[in-house]
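Hi team,

Below is the intake form for Phosphomannomutase/phosphoglucomutase from Nonomuraea cypriaca. Please confirm the fields before the structure is written into the shared record.

FORM ID: S-0412
PROTEIN: Phosphomannomutase/phosphoglucomutase
ORGANISM: Nonomuraea cypriaca
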Amino acid sequence: MGDLAKIFKAYDVRGVVPDEFDEPAAEAVGAAFVEVTGAESVVVAHDMRESSVPLAEAFVRGARSRRADVVHAGLGSTDLLYYASGSLGLPGVMFTASHNPARYNGMKMCRSGAVPIGGDTGLTQIRDRAAELVGVSAAPTGSLIEKDLLPGYAHHLRKLVDLSAVRPLKVVVDAGNGMGGHTVPAVFDGLPMELIPLYFELDGDFPNHEANPLEPQNLVDLQRAVIESGADIGLAFDGDADRCWVIDERGLSVSPSAITALVAVRELGKYPGATIIHNLITSLGVPEIVREHGGVPVRTRVGHSFIKAEMARAGAVFGGEHSAHYYFRDFWFADSGMLAAMHVLAALGEQERPLSEVVAAYSRYHASGEVNSAVADQEEALRRVREAFAGRGTFDELDGLTVTGPGWWFNLRASNTEPLLRLNAEAAEESKMAAIKDEVLAIVGKVSV
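The structure came back. Fields below:
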């Protein structure tokens, strides 16, 4: 029997199948979802994992048992589910465990218009009601409609970013055997691009590498293919294809902060003076560039629920995170790795310079990347760091501890799920960044597990 208390997280549902997450649990969640949201209709999609079809079908049974009609989109990426929710005006559920290993599965839920459902916006109530409904079955009375939404999704994205007139580009895409292998061909069809596919075969066992582009070892094949083929750009998608990582023509990673700044400038060209959201561990270059182009940068905590909430509150046109999540007002404030990739392709293809030169204008600082330390007493470690940096910079505790000095900053924050402290440091000079990073890690190391 599934363990609802364990699999319901702050923003989604995720657990090992079938030990923690099974079909009776999914069916109960389907019924609870309808009861809590009051949905008369629900749209459902799923990724390529072997467990996704039976879990999604169980959810559909539960939803239909509460008289809700279900639009079943079948295979899709998470941003396709957001498109479905937004374009159809329906609450939606995506069955995926994103980049997690094959034995995991989960659910991402949203209200009509792709409004996210998190712990404080209905997820806790769904969990509690589902716990009461496990094993309680009723005959399905709602209708079931199967609908292919992929063509509409591709058409919508191509309306937002017109790539039909860009110069011919050679593009390597690593789908990691995830849902990018399903969505990329539809979006790229007929465009002036030579597509070189890597691992487009849908396979939830991830036989080639994990579908997590944040880990450098998962980019090696893409980097090699870009160099060997003489490609203009490489794109790597995660398992549910809502995140995208960019590789330049030299086979080098492009920082998500640089991508955030690039897309922000493009959106500000369309919406002058607009607000741009960035989380507190994106580069200092992001708010600088936003201001230089007449925009209003707004800093927020790390995490998609905070980004989406702040975007809606501020009416922001775009938001970016260090984790390669990118959010668009024109996409119901939801995140889409594909849409971000299309903006980069447009910026590259509308002029003649290579990608490395295009993004150089958006890369101003040297960053450490995220460094994790296992720490038994996180508060004690943070106290020691505060003490060591007292008087050397300004302190900010919006999310963990951020210390900002002349030409440098770092953020040290606790993981929500593990006994880890996560460090990000940045400076105008690489040597200064390294010195700050090493100093903080040395202090943290004294209270390590």
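SUMMARY LINE: The CA atoms of residues 97 and 373 lie 25 Å apart.

Thanks, M.
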